[in-house]
From TrEMBL:
SUPFAM superfamilies in the record: Thioredoxin-like, Winged helix' DNA-binding domain
UniProt source species: Brassica carinata
Protein name: DEP domain-containing protein
Ranges of Basic and acidic residues composition bias in the record: 42-55, 72-81, 120-132
GO biological process: intracellular signal transduction
Amino acid sequence: MDMETSPRHNVPIKSAEIIAEEVSSKQDVETASATLEENNVEDIKPVETRDEDVYPKPIVETDDIIDEMESIDIHGEDKTVSLESETQQDKMLSPSNDDYDDDSESSHDSKDDADEDETMDAKEKPKPDSRDSNPSTSAWTEKAAAIKNFVRVKSEVAVHTVMRHLSGKINDDSAVHDARENETQWAESPKAKGKSSIWNPLSYLKMMQNDDTIDKVEATNVEAELEPVVMKGRIILYTRLGCKECRECRLYLHGKRLRYVEINIDIYPSRKQDLEKIGGSSSSSDVPKVLFNEKLVGSIKELKELDESGELDEKIRHLIDEASPREAPLPPFSGEDDASSKGPVDELALLVRKMKPCIVRDRYYKMRRFKNCFSGSDAVNFLSSDQCLERDEAIEVARKLASQLFFQHVLEDNMFEDGDHLYRFLDDDPIVSSQCHNIPRGIIEIKPRPIVEIASRLRLLYRAILEAYTSPDGKHVDYRSIHGSEEFARFLRIIQELHRVQQLVDMPREEKLAFFINLYNMMAIHAILVWGHPAGPLERTKMFGEFKYVIGGYTYSLSAIQNGIIRANQRQPYHLTKPFNEKDKRSMVALPYVEPLSHFALVCGTRSGPPLRCFSPGEIDKELMEATRDFLRGGGLVVDLSLKVAYISKIFNWYAVDFGNGEKKVLKHASTYLEPQLSEALLDVLVDTQFRVVYQTYDWGLNN
């Protein structure tokens, strides 16, 4: 076959092999020409041009791309770039001309390369008819590919560096070092065989997250060390309220990572008999008592003796392997010794249960639509027919139902009247049903108990929760254990009785103050367990304002309890209005004056807040003073007399009006709860000089 000729110059078009020979060093030009003449050009057979040669298929298929993206190492150690990309980058970094003349190419090729090209297989040589046979096109193609790869590598390094800067992982100096290191890795690492280099920005997110791998592994190891020992058996711990040895025994078992079931004989009085049977005598009812399955181990003293002798480890291994036999004491079951499920039946509740599905529907009243309500006449008609009463008698029964807080007027205009006035049952109120977390499902058949009795039961249960699931100082709470405890389940049943309680207005000041402080603290724990710890100011506002209980027929949020009742209906910080207006009947429940020391008793689950305590009505004032003193001496007020600076809790800034509404008055008020010597020195200095007050940063983190 003759060599093709150019139609314009009538000169043969040289093949790629001839061009390769010509671009070698000048000393080998004659040798290359002689070699070309010796070759028989006519022996070259024509090669058919296929579509695959002109339009080659993509090197990487979709499945290959997915496999490669999944196989990218987040450490960046296995990132690969083709050898071709390295050559193209070298060309970009080295000086070169646009024209591929003999002088430019002679610096890159050698005689040995030419000899190797002669020995190459014919399939590896460029085809004469292919598009790459044009040297100018080939050169620009290579340059374009080199620019593309160069920009890609630089972009990847830049993205990695920026993302690490945003995450705060490195400073400027280390960023330059990491950028150079990553660039070197990309330039030097070889191309993975059969794979194409694909830029995956998501891999750099993984790389950034992987920087904390060591810290996460260490944190995981710490958590694993703190996880309780998994046992087939069961440990029973008998305790009672106010027992120091019981608290010591809890801490000892917790330190050994032993999960146990606590039975407080003050909460479960029926278990006293079981404890006496286990001990064999009446004196054996003393607590604490620890049982491993059915065997009595003893108190904290016996536990320590077993630990010193090495027998405790053997008993623990037995608990791990052996399940509890039938004769072992059982954990308390739901509702055991719970007074909420016991009591006289309320006949009015049974009547309401029958009445409700017959008269409730959506109605229009005063140009408005009210859902799930009934008219006064419909209620009277039902009572007359169902109870066989005269109309006047039926009206009296309906008024009695309203006085027992089963229902109320939709606009609170009256208690009950026969006619077109609309009324709504308490659990059908939209606010009560959507925001109140103590409304019972259905109607409680037990007669409501006095508020004083309910407050006493709540106080007893609150003490049991604090002793079992908080740290000794009350600053840390085990929310996870509270959530699954029988004590918390009983608490949920008790608070359901609050929706129809009476005599809230008539409660003495000490009873009311202790009741609402304890309820506030347990309500905050309940909110955290249901909604989680608020992450920001919007979530905190929602928790304080929208997590509610219905008490005595009216809804109370955390903010309403603190600012409306305990602070005598004072404005909340950063608010313009009071919690209760003049027509709000809840204002009648509010305390007569502000209780400033209550700020050191109310706990909303934050680290900067005071520790949890249980307050009793008989010693409420003494306990509030102790709580204030412990809070201020524990870091709530730090005084530096030499610098004349006082670092004080942010609480005094938010509620300054409760402490005198002035920094000097606030310091005088707070100084009375410090150590006597420091208090006298501070008061003496305040007389002559002005102290600078610095408010501490409030830590909203969870006190878990």
